[in-house]
């Protein structure tokens, strides 16, 4: 039975009525208070408790460390602000020189004597490709993660997990080249099939040619973000307390019901974080999309016709022959990408925050 | 609704390690049976063999026969989830689902059974919480997280969650060992009430508790570390604590070993 130290006023009265087998004389529960200060100052001069309290040290590791962390934190802030100032200073003149609306114009001609460029189609393509990629990648990634954490034999799970982590180490240009040279064929066939049977949906309308499309870009992106989401989710699922899994099983849950009752709710915040990391990667992915997309500058929900573009892909494609205004325009588009990523992250945090009461007590 | 449990030559392994050997005992309906004995003698292992939670661990298996009202729970054709619904379990550490509210915790088992109707769930939750002596303390905050309760309340919440599905048997593995004395008393009182309806088997390290709450007591022990646990003596609690027939039992309950 727990031996709770009663407050000395209670000793021998209320508490001892309950703890009959721990009855003790009043006052016996006063614990030696002298122990406390010595344990807080190892190496201090006052071991043994005689004399006055030891003086606070003027300079110690504690302070040095605090100074160091403060300096590091400040340095990061300064660097970020400096970069931001530089980017804005470059972007503003280009935006001023723009002769059409930056928001609505569908095209990118910043190097002309009369610069014309608009972010709309690029921002749209960026979000569309990332969302499509996640729609494909998240269910697959969660399925694999659950298989690895709760179904596969431990050995096999570890081996497969290692393979998937390896996939994350492949450079994106390799994915891009593979997508452009090999994967575009099957995707073109799939697109033709989708067009034949689901052509009445705007997503699969149009009449080709197929291949270098949003669909190809999104599928390549999906493969690229799969490892990061799988790997993090698997870690999160594995950390579900055994006690909760057993509680569900003892209530008569099947394994899948146990996963739904104990594992998925517990892992939810972690999975959201993993998906956000994947989304961040998808939004910022440059070269793989520059290689696989058909590069057009119009806003369209058609995902199977050749075309599509994203902010990052456009930067990679257009930076080479950009003049001063051209570079400024690309920087402005980069700031836009930054803003999109920021909004996505804030939204994700808000989602996680809403259930904080529950997730915190889960920790 | 309470049922009789009969264990015949139950032997349980963790991989190659034999944790308990040839346990034979019969537990009558609507009684409280206490399992006592030194640490590592296989009390938890035996308890977990009864509702087939033992086999959840990789490499763990059970031999022998365990019947509930004559039906073998290890029969090939028996659905293991049905066994566990019939035989509820309360664990040593309170383990409410951390992401669920108090209400959702209580009805978790019913939801697993496919109960969807709100009114049914609400009634069942109130009934179970009342039976677990927790209703008055939580009725105004059913939507709050179950993990926000005190340890004793959490354990009673887990008891409510267990009895909400109306099992026949309730197994408790040291349900009070992580609790303060007042919560312990509350749970002991609860056991008195529950035995009107359920067959209860409780593992406890606390002799006073065993003698207070149980009708029958089973004493488990091991020869030395590495040996399997065996049932040494099983009798009325009164007899075990006043006049045990085996020397080893007497040594244990008088504190001479263990
Ligand atoms: N998960 C496990 N894996 C391997 N051995 C275990 C496991 N759990 C318990 N054991 C062993 O089985 C024996 C019985 O344990 P247990 O049933 O927990 O004893 P008790 O509950 O009486 O303290 C002990 O020797 C213990 O070390
Ligand atoms: Mg135990």
From TrEMBL, chain A:
Residues 1-51 are annotated as: Disordered. Its main location: membrane. It comes from the Bacteria. Signal peptide: none annotated. SUPFAM superfamilies: MetI-like (SSF161098). It is found in: Cell membrane. Keywords: Cell membrane, Membrane, Phosphate transport, Transmembrane, Transmembrane helix, Transport. InterPro entries: MetI-like, MetI-like_sf, Phosphate_PstC, Phosphate_Transport_Permease. Residues 123-348 form the ABC transmembrane type-1 domain. Gene3D superfamilies: MetI-like (1.10.3720.10). CDD domains: TM_PBP2. Residues 42-51 have a biased composition (Gly residues). Belongs to the binding-protein-dependent transport system permease family. CysTW subfamily. PANTHER family: PHOSPHATE TRANSPORT SYSTEM PERMEASE PROTEIN PST, PHOSPHATE TRANSPORT SYSTEM PERMEASE PROTEIN PSTC. This is Phosphate transport system permease protein. The lineage of its organism: Bacteria, Bacillati, Actinomycetota, Actinomycetes, Micromonosporales. The gene is pstC.
TrEMBL record, chain B:
Keywords: ATP-binding, Nucleotide-binding, Translocase, Transport. GO terms for molecular function: ATP binding. Residues 5-247 form the ABC transporter domain. The keyword Cell membrane does not apply. It holds the Pfam family ABC_tran. Gene3D superfamilies: P-loop containing nucleotide triphosphate hydrolases. SUPFAM superfamilies: P-loop containing nucleoside triphosphate hydrolases. InterPro entries: AAA+_ATPase (IPR003593), ABC_transporter-like_ATP-bd (IPR003439), ABC_transporter-like_CS (IPR017871), P-loop_NTPase (IPR027417), PstB-like (IPR005670). It comes from the Bacteria. This is Phosphate ABC transporter ATP-binding protein. The lineage of its organism: Bacteria, Bacillati, Actinomycetota, Actinomycetes, Micromonosporales.
């Amino acid at each position: 039975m727990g031996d709770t130290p009663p407050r000395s006023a209670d000793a021998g009265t209320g508490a001892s009525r309950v703890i009959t087998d721990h009855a003790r004389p009043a006052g016996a529960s006063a614990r030696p208070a002298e122990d406390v200060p010595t344990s807080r100052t190892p190496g201090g001069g006052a071991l043994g408790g005689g004399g006055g309290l030891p003086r606070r040290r003027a300079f110690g590791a504690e302070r040095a460390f605090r100074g160091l962390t403060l300096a590091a934190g400040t340095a990061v802030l300064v660097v970020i602000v400096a970069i931001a100032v530089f980017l804005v200073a470059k972007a503003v003149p280009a935006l001023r020189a723009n002769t059409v609306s930056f928001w609505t114009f569908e095209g990118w001609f910043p190097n002309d004597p009369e610069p014309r460029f608009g972010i709309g189609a690029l921002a749209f393509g960026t979000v569309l490709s990332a969302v499509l990629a996640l729609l494909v990648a998240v269910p697959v990634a969660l399925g694999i993660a659950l298989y690895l954490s709760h179904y596969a034999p431990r050995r096999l799970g570890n081996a497969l997990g290692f393979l998937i982590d390896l996939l994350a180490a492949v450079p994106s240009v390799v994915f891009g080249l593979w997508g452009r040279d090999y994967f575009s064929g099957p995707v073109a066939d799939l697109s033709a099939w989708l067009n034949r049977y689901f052509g009445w949906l705007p997503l699969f309308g149009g009449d080709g040619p197929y291949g270098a499309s949003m669909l190809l870009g999104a599928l390549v992106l999906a493969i690229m973000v799969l490892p990061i989401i799988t790997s993090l989710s698997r870690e999160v699922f594995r950390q579900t307390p055994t006690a909760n899994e057993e509680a569900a099983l003892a209530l008569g849950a099947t394994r899948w019901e146990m996963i739904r009752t104990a594992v998925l709710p517990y892992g939810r915040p972690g999975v959201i974080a993993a998906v956000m990391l994947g989304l961040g990667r998808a939004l910022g992915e440059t070269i793989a999309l520059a290689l696989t997309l058909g590069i057009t500058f119009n806003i369209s929900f058609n995902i199977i016709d050749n075309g599509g573009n994203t902010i990052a892909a456009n930067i990679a494609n257009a930076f080479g022959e950009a003049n001063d205004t051209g570079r400024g325009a690309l920087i402005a588009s980069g700031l836009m990408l930054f803003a999109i990523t920021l909004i996505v992250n804030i939204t994700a945090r808000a989602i996680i925050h809403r259930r904080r009461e529950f997730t915190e007590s889960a920790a | 609704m309470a049922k009789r449990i009969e264990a015949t030559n139950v032997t349980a392994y963790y991989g190659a390690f034999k944790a308990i050997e040839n346990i034979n005992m019969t537990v009558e309906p609507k009684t409280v049976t206490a399992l006592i004995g030194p640490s590592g003698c296989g009390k938890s292992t035996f308890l977990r063999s009864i509702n087939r939670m033992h086999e959840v661990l990789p490499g763990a298996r059970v031999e022998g026969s365990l019947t509930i009202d004559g039906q073998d729970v290890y029969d090939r054709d028996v659905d293991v989830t049905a066994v566990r619904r019939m035989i509820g379990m309360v664990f040593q550490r309170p383990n409410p689902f951390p992401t669920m509210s108090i209400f959702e915790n209580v009805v978790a088992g019913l939801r697993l059974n496919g109960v969807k109707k709100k009114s049914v769930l609400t009634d069942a939750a109130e009934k179970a919480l009342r039976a677990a002596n927790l209703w008055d303390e939580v009725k105004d905050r059913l939507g709050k997280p179950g993990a926000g309760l005190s340890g004793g309340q959490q354990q009673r919440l887990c008891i409510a969650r267990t009895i909400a599905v109306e099992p026949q048997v309730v197994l408790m593995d040291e349900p009070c060992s992580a609790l303060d004395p007042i919560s312990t008393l509350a749970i002991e009182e609860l056991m008195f009430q529950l035995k009107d309806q359920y067959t209860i088997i409780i593992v406890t390290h606390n002799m006073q508790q065993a003698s207070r709450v149980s009708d029958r007591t089973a004493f488990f022990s091991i020869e030395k570390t590495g040996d399997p646990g065996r049932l040494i003596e099983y009798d009325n609690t009164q007899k075990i604590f006043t006049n045990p027939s085996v020397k080893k039992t007497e040594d244990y309950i008088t504190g001479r070993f263990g």
